[in-house]
Amino acid sequence: MLQEVFYWIFNMSITAALTGTLITLVRSVKKIPRRLSVFLWVIPFARMVFPVGLNSPYSLMSLLSKTATKFVTVYQPTDDMSFSMMNSVMAADTYFPITYKTNILEDIFNIASVVWLVGALIILLILAVAYSAAFYEIKDSMHLRDNIYLSDKAFSPAVYGIVKPRIILPASYKNRDVELVVLHETMHIQSIDNLWRLSAFAIVAVHWFNPLCWLFLKLLLTDLELSCDERVLAKLDDNNRAREYALALLESKTDRTIFTSAFGGAKIRARIENILSYKKLTIFSTAVFIVFIGIIFHALMTNAG
């Protein structure tokens, strides 16, 4: 049972690596706003979670079906609709249950599945400890107003928590103008970024053996931060306020804990460059980008039909 689970996890990881690599290439197009392109990361992370995909003749996965990949149909409710699992390993002759081509392959997957499970449990334990430690650090924080708190353990502004998120500011911010800082953290809360981060960490913990999945996690965290900056800028009135925001960003830069809003996020230089080059979207350009992203979703979230 365990080795069958790992077999499909391994397949899902390969599919995620392929789609994530394509998303990385699309992401390099600077004209696409981060607050829109950030949604593209749903594709590789969904591929890490869901083994089954809807078949489509317009899927980019069709290109792989003619080379190194086989698609195993698992459900076909109608003649025009079917669901399949992408099989890139192709180490088996039959599926459900899996019958391996050779005994050596079966032995390899038996051993690898145990190593995978132990590694995943260790990483998930580390994440759980880090999550608890992050809250322990700010347990004595002082309430300032609303959901804003001050803590002498905090080195920079951050959001803690998911269900009842708190904005934690360093104690040194008590007598400072924190309007822009709070606005930034509020954007993180409205976009439930901490939930996305926690989910992404848990998913990558399951795919810990795939270095590309860790790269995609890093890029996702970067884009979440850049996306948040863009949403803040959309609410500001003029360029002077944008410069103030950039300065506030420089003043608050430091390392943060693993589950706070900016962990592993964009480097300060990249964020400043994104802020200075920011342009508000027109209705037309927004519509064009949404259609473009929708096409990519369909091409990469479906399997060969």
The end-to-end distance, rounded to whole angstroms, is: 29 Å
Oligomer: single chain
Low-confidence stretches: 257-264
Strand content: 5-15%
Query: SSE order in H/E notation?
Result: HHHEHEEEEHEEEEHHHHHHE
What is the structural class? alpha+beta
Rg, rounded, reads 22 Å
Q: Helical content, roughly? A: 55-70%
Average pLDDT value?
82
| Spatial order of strands in the largest sheet | 2-3-1-10
- Please, how many helices? 11
Shape: globular
Overall structural domain count: 1
Strand runs, count: 10
Largest sheet: 4 strands, mixed
What does this structure look like?
With 305 residues, this protein is of the alpha+beta class. It has one domain. It contains eleven helices and ten strands. The strands form three sheets. A four-stranded mixed beta sheet has the order 2-3-1-10. The chain has a four-stranded mixed beta sheet with strand order 6-7-9-8, with helices on one face. Strands 4-5 form a two-stranded antiparallel sheet. α1 crosses α8.
What is the fold's blueprint, element by element?
Layout: H1 2-27, H2 34-37, H3 42-49, E1 52-56, H4 62-65, E2 70-78, E3 81-87, E4 92-94, E5 99-100, H5 103-137, E6 142-145, E7 148-151, E8 158-160, E9 166-170, H6 179-190, H7 193-206, H8 211-235, H9 239-251, H10 268-276, H11 283-301, E10 303-304
Parallel strand pairs: 1-10, 7-9
Antiparallel strand pairs: 1-3, 2-3, 4-5, 6-7, 8-9
Helix pairs in contact: 1-3, 1-5, 1-8, 5-7, 6-8, 7-8, 8-10, 9-10
